[in-house]
Amino acid sequence: MTTDIADIQVGTEVPALAVQPITRTTLALFAGASGDHNPIHIDLDAAKEAGFDDVFAHGMLSMAYLGRLITSWVPQSQLRSLSTRFSAITPVHARPTCTGTVTSVDEVDGERRATLDVQITLEDGTVTLRGEAVVAVR
């Protein structure tokens, strides 16, 4: 998919990505795929010992969802940068929704680039991740 610069302007919203509820299986599979076997993400006893009520999602899983949001909108080859800041945990059973809004469109290094504010919000309004993405737009 390509995104035409004529259609992108400040305020353009990326189609939201609603993620399936985070399950214990999701966390176990992500631990295996990522190599991040921190027990607070997959072992209830370890999570409770660390002061949490239950296991919770890996921060990098949330960041991967934001990457999926962006690459569902423009091809991966057009992604120039993605930076994020974690602001809250994503509990097991949460239903994250990823969103993005164009905040600027500029000429950089000879190509048109859109800067987006991106974030993940849970059903209760908690924002778990905020960030910025830059994509080349053609």
From TrEMBL:
InterPro entries hit by this protein: HotDog_dom_sf (IPR029069), MaoC-like_dom (IPR002539)
Gene3D superfamilies in alphabetical order: Hotdog Thioesterase (3.10.129.10)
Domain MaoC-like span(s) in chain numbering: 11-111
SUPFAM superfamilies associated with the record: Thioesterase/thiol ester dehydrase-isomerase (SSF54637)
Recorded family membership: Belongs to the enoyl-CoA hydratase/isomerase family.
Entry protein name: MaoC family dehydratase
